[in-house]
Design brief:
Chain lengths: 259, 405
């Protein structure tokens, strides 16, 4: 088996006396869609926040192996923007777009960490800056086409319908050119039709070779998309395996339905 | 048109006003004649006046709320207000800009020196407003101590002139640069703060600078200030007072054109987008790979730079400065310019600066009531147009691919 893109070992996160994550191990391999599921309050979003540098885990290690074959990167303790620069992009459970920026600009923000123009470039707009700006525009538009939002280009993000806002979050994350995409409940609040479209979109993104780690409550979506599933409860990993194994796992059923 | 309940409320309000204003409006004491006059007729005026004013307020409020609901459903970019539409159409915009520029150029030759002087002050506040607009309007960092940077600019010229006899043109970039440095100095401790906490720290910073200038006599000559600062030099030629003022006026016009150009370019650049993202959502902004610290520090220092430039011009214009010119009230006025005009909108800030600086000047006819009227205008503005007079709109892009669909 090849080396995983993301290696998390023994991650523990304490908030005062509460242990939100307890020695969690997790790997994501190149090109796969992995899912992280568990009852409400199991620590899934805390796990994402630890990965992306919003929290610093109490103990444990996070390593990223860039698929391009570069050196192993230790992500623990890095600032969120550094984590994104190293190729880990995320979406948020409660949509966090930039509401008073246009849809296109939201995606253009994603290109920030891959571009350089600064004060001087902004004021004098030399050839290098203009070229860079054009690349940002073209790439952002291409991503909007990929997620099917091209007709909203100049609309303010706050005016988009709910489902489109979720897609825009994904587009914005894609613009950072991640090697691993973290999706935090992308289908929350969507109707069956929107969920179906999302399923197709995620498959489409994954086809390009991008690894995806997904937190989701919609079991139909999780079972249809995932190659592997991790189940957590009270911050502990209780099961790991292929969808059909998880479906029949006694511990998982107990965690979700009680005894 | 009005329900009984609404009328009752208005009646209650007018009764309350009668009660409140009773001591000043009705009782009049003549201490020399030892007489007390009871001006009962004033009760009637207050009661009727406040009743109809509260009715009017209610009507406007209702209309405003109705309009708000309408605007929410509309396609925001399609249905923009007329001012923004004019600004977005190149033909109208160019005509407008040309008219404004011509008016600005001939202004000092038509109006008196007094008027020109007032106009210079207004122009200075335009640049100050545009500077603060970077910090508050674009980056969303509420800065209540902006006047500190203005003071740094003014004092750097005054002191350099006093001790080293350095001229205006050399002091100008130094003043701007020093203010920018102070912007970074302020920026470091407040990197983790936002909202009200940030506002309080910046407020403290502004006061610290003023208090230092006031009390460190050996350095700044304390409250007595620094006098006989040289006016801007004009190729070594001595100018009469009158032409010196006109010269300063044109300098400010050039400064404004440069400021508008720079701020306009900044706000649609990679850096400008990062500022707005920071304003909109700090956590998402970081998660999208934007270095929060760097972005904030650059916003603080670039905003402060303009304040420093204007500070140097201020010292040169008045030829005398003391710490009393740099009180918290100044910061509050500059902030009001940005908020009233429209946060993040260049045209808004310009209009805001003119209204806030020129209105009190031309309301002098109302003598002591002018500040009252001024306050009322501010309150009304914020109730009925919280987004500012001219709301900021973001740049739109067109793609060739759009046409083929």
């Amino acid at each position: 088996m090849d080396t995983p893109i993301l290696e998390v070992s023994k991650m523990t996160m304490d908030f005062g006396g509460i242990r939100a994550l307890d020695k969690l191990d997790l790997e994501v391999y190149s090109g796969e869609i992995a899912a992280l599921i568990g009852p409400n309050g199991a620590g899934k979003t805390t796990f994402f926040n630890c990965l992306t540098g919003i929290y610093v885990p109490t103990r444990g290690d996070i390593f990223l192996n860039p698929p391009s074959g570069g050196k192993k990167v230790d992500l623990k303790g890095l600032l969120p923007n550094k984590v994104t620069e190293h190729g880990l992009a995320r979406t948020f459970q409660n949509i966090r777009l930039f509401p008073r920026m246009t849809v296109l600009e939201n995606v253009m923000i994603g290109r920030h960490c891959r571009t350089k123009a600064f004060i001087v470039g902004a004021i004098f707009r030399g050839p290098a800056t203009r070229k860079e700006e054009k690349e940002i525009l073209d790439m952002s538009y291409a991503i909007l086409e990929q997620v099917g939002l091209q007709k909203f280009v100049n609309e303010y993000a706050q005016n988009l319908p709910y489902g489109a806002q979720r897609r825009l979050e994904i587009a914005r994350a894609l613009a950072t050119e991640p090697s691993l995409l973290l999706l935090d409940e992308p289908a929350a609040g969507m109707n069956p039709q929107e969920t179906q479209n999302l399923d197709e979109l995620i498959r489409d993104i994954s086809k390009g070779g991008l690894a995806i780690l997904l937190i989701e409550h919609d079991m139909k979506l999780v079972m249809s998309l995932s190659d592997r599933i991790y189940v957590v409860d009270y911050g502990k990993k209780i099961a790991e395996g292929k969808p059909e194994e998880i479906r029949s796992n006694a511990d998982v059923i107990k965690a979700y339905l009680g005894e | 048109m009005f329900s009984r309940k609404e009328l009752q409320r208005c009646l209650l309000i007018s009764l309350w006003f009668v009660f409140l204003t009773f001591p000043i409006m009705v009782i009049k004491v003549d201490p020399f004649e030892r007489l007390v006059y009871w001006r009962w007729e004033n009760i009637l005026y207050v009661a009727v006046g406040s009743f109809f004013l509260s009715l009017l307020f209610r009507m406007l409020l209702r209309k405003n709320e109705g309009g708000g609901a309408e605007a929410l459903g509309a396609d925001s970019l399609e249905k923009t207000p007329i001012v923004t539409r004019i600004l977005e159409t190149p033909k109208y915009r160019n005509t407008l800009m040309l008219t404004v520029l011509t008016a600005a150029l001939v202004f000092p030759h038509i109006f008196s020196t007094y008027q020109t002087n007032i106009m210079i002050t207004a122009l200075m506040y335009v640049v100050l407003g545009l500077g603060l607009n970077i910090v508050v309007g674009l980056a969303g960092l509420l800065d209540l101590g902006f006047v500190a940077f203005y003071a740094v600019g003014a004092y750097s010229y005054a002191l350099l002139h006093l001790h080293f006899d350095i001229g205006f043109w050399i002091a100008l970039p130094i003043g701007g640069f020093l203010a920018a440095m102070f912007g970074i100095v302020l920026g470091f401790p407040v990197l983790r703060l936002r909202g009200d906490y940030l506002a309080i720290v910046t407020l403290g910073f502004g006061e610290i600078i003023r208090l230092v200038l006031e009390n460190w006599g050996d350095f700044s000559q304390g409250p007595s200030g620094i006098s006989s600062i040289a006016r801007p030099g004009f190729f070594g030629i001595e100018l009469s007072l009158n032409s010196a003022i006109i010269y300063t006026y044109y300098l400010m016009i050039i400064a404004i054109i440069i400021t508008i150009f720079v701020v306009n370019r900044l706000q649609d650049s990679r850096l400008g987008r990062a500022w707005i993202a920071l304003r909109e959502d700090e956590i998402a902004c970081q998660a999208m790979g934007i270095d929060k610290r760097k972005t904030k520090l650059v916003a603080f220092s670039l905003g402060a730079f303009w304040a420093g430039i204007v500070g140097v011009v201020f010292a040169a214009k008045t030829t005398f400065i003391n710490p009393a010119s740099f009180t918290f009230l100044e910061s509050a006025i500059i902030l009001s310019i940005v908020v009233l005009g429209g946060m993040g909108s260049i045209v808004g800030v310009i209009v805001g600066a003119f209204i806030l600086i020129l209105l009190p000047e031309y309301l002098r006819a109302l003598s002591e009531y002018r500040m009252l009227a001024f306050g009322a205008v501010l309150v009304m503005m914020m109730v009925f147009r919280p987004q500012g007079m001219i709301a900021a709109i973001r740049k739109t892009y067109t793609f060739k691919k759009d046409d083929q669909e």
